[in-house]
Task: inverse folding
């Protein structure tokens, strides 16, 4: 009798497990899809990070160049101011010499 019950119990258990197996298969499929989406998002984020790093480097380079240009303009302004002062003094001296 025990031998007759074993196949019957196995059959009942297998029938009871069918919906669970199907649900597990569905969950695994969804998990695989979610994993692929997550990997895709991570890859895209890495690309975005690399682009941001590149832009940051470009901004720092432009900032350095701008600082250099500002310094050059300040030097030119100083030279122009000096030349203006020197020209003014020379014109005054010329004026004085003409008066004499």
Result:
């Amino acid at each position: 009798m025990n031998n007759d019950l074993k196949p019957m119990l196995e059959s009942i258990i297998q029938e009871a497990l069918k919906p669970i197996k199907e649900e597990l298969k569905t969950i695994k499929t969804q998990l695989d899809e979610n994993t692929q989406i997550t990997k895709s998002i991570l890859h895209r984020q890495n690309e975005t990070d690399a682009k941001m790093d590149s832009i940051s480097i470009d901004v720092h380079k432009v900032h350095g160049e701008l600082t250099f240009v500002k310094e050059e303009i300040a030097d030119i302004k100083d030279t122009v101011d000096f030349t203006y002062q020197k020209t003014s003094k020379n014109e005054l001296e010329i004026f004085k010499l003409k008066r004499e």
